[in-house]
Amino acid sequence: MNALAIFLMDKDAQGYIDLSDLDLTSCHFKGDVISKVSFLSSNLQHVTFECKEIGDSNFTTAIVDNVIFRCRRLHNVIFIKASGECVDFSKNILDTVDFSQSQLTQSNFRECQIRNSNFDNCYLYASHFTRAEFLSAKEISFIKSNMTAVMFDHVRISTGNFKDCITEQLELTIDYSDIFWNEDHDGYINNIIKMIDTLPDNAMILKSVLAVKLVMQLKILNIVNKNFIENMKKTFSHCPYIKDPIIRSYIHSGEDNKFDDFMRQHRFSKVDFDTQQMIHFINRFNMNKGLIDKNNNYFLSNLSIRPYDQRMI
């Protein structure tokens, strides 16, 4: 079925083209813009959408196994209680998309730009958000979602809520590079701290590692703010590894030499520190076990020997 065929079909009372409760298995929807279409409770297994944009459309309770979205943008689209595996949203702009209460296992959100979207109460088992960008001014919400084995690898995210999530085997690496051009350092940093703190207590080691990485970046950039330091101490004082030399060198006065000695040892300068240098520094630090308590093995480079909740690169 192509886009022309869609637009020739009858519309419902709300002006939507009604493709509800249909078996559309393996259909190929191709066109410029697909707009105001209801796929409510339809079977969309192995369907491909190939278009510039899907807008104002409803996939509520649809079966979306192995659906491929070869689009540029999804805008104002609803997936509430949709279910399926291996849905491919990669490289799409997801703008105001509601995934709440959906079951989307092993789905692909790689390199997506995600704005003003909702993932509350989702089952996202083994889904990938590699290099995704969460660009919303407002908080991206994953409240009460099952994030088992989900991978957030080098994601750009500054506001988010992971309250009451299941985080077993969760992998989360945040790309903090936005701080380079963010004029509101205090707001950005404190939003990051707030987001990290929403992770549940059973992910305490993951929270600690994220805090360590943030502190390292701020030390490298020589960003010091009294209010931020107090917020950091208050938020993460109960976390394990908070006495790690890198953390201590930032939030405790008189201990800067521990960080600076390490920097000099590896010939790094805090002046004009670009992103690649910072990444290289972190990788070097991860492999340098001499500065870290031998039990803090979340810094080991071999992911396979770490507990999943501790995986960080």
Structural features, described:
The chain has a six-stranded parallel β-sheet with strand order 3-6-8-10-12-13, with no helix packed on it. The termini are far apart. Helix 2 runs antiparallel to helix 3 (204-220), helix 2 runs parallel beside helix 4 (226-236) and helix 5 (245-251) packs across helix 6 (256-265). The chain has seven helices and 17 strands. The longest helix has 17 residues, at 204-220. Helix content is 25%, strand content 18%. The chain has two domains: 1-166, Pectate Lyase C-like (3 Solenoid); 204-313, no CATH class. The chain is elongated, with a radius of gyration of 22 Å. The protein has helices at 3-7, 185-198, 204-220, 226-236, 245-251, 256-265, 275-287, and strands at 17-18, 28-30, 33-35, 37-38, 48-50, 53-55, 68-70, 73-78, 83-85, 93-98, 103-105, 113-115, 133-134, 140-141, 151-155, 160-161, 171-174. It is an alpha/beta fold and 313 residues long.
Topology readout:
Layout: H1 3-7, E1 17-18, E2 28-30, E3 33-35, E4 37-38, E5 48-50, E6 53-55, E7 68-70, E8 73-78, E9 83-85, E10 93-98, E11 103-105, E12 113-115, E13 133-134, E14 140-141, E15 151-155, E16 160-161, E17 171-174, H2 185-198, H3 204-220, H4 226-236, H5 245-251, H6 256-265, H7 275-287
Parallel strand pairs: 1-4, 2-5, 3-6, 5-7, 6-8, 8-10, 9-11, 10-12, 12-13, 14-16, 15-17
Question: Would you kindly provide a brief summary of this structure?
Answer:
This protein is an alpha/beta fold.
